[in-house]
UniProtKB/TrEMBL annotation:
Coiled coil: none
Listed PANTHER family: ESTER CYCLASE, POLYKETIDE CYCLASE SNOAL-LIKE DOMAIN
Provenance organism: Amnibacterium soli
SUPFAM superfamilies on file: NTF2-like (SSF54427)
Protein name, UniProt field: Ester cyclase
Amino acid sequence: MRFFEPRGRRPSSVSSRSAIALFRQAMPDYDVRHEDVLVDGDRVAVRNTVSGTHLGAFMGHEPTGRRIEMRTMDVHQVRNGRIVTTWHLEDFAGLMAQLNAGPDVPVRAAWS
């Protein structure tokens, strides 16, 4: 399987696994909810909500104890029943806004 990374980085499924491990370390109740799955030919599009409680350090942010939600989208190319390529997008800016918000600021639902 190939993942397409930002310019200058080599595609690797290892980077995807390490990113998920980073989330799981900071948010032990890390969860991914698949909101929609659409299939067209050899492409599968998935709209997700990633959520968890920020209980560990994450990208320079000390634990806030806040419940966070982040939107993600994946488009997979499938051949012979296996994913061969994935294009992944996430609302990282929205995640950072939640982590930087003051303790009294309500967190908006990811897809509202």
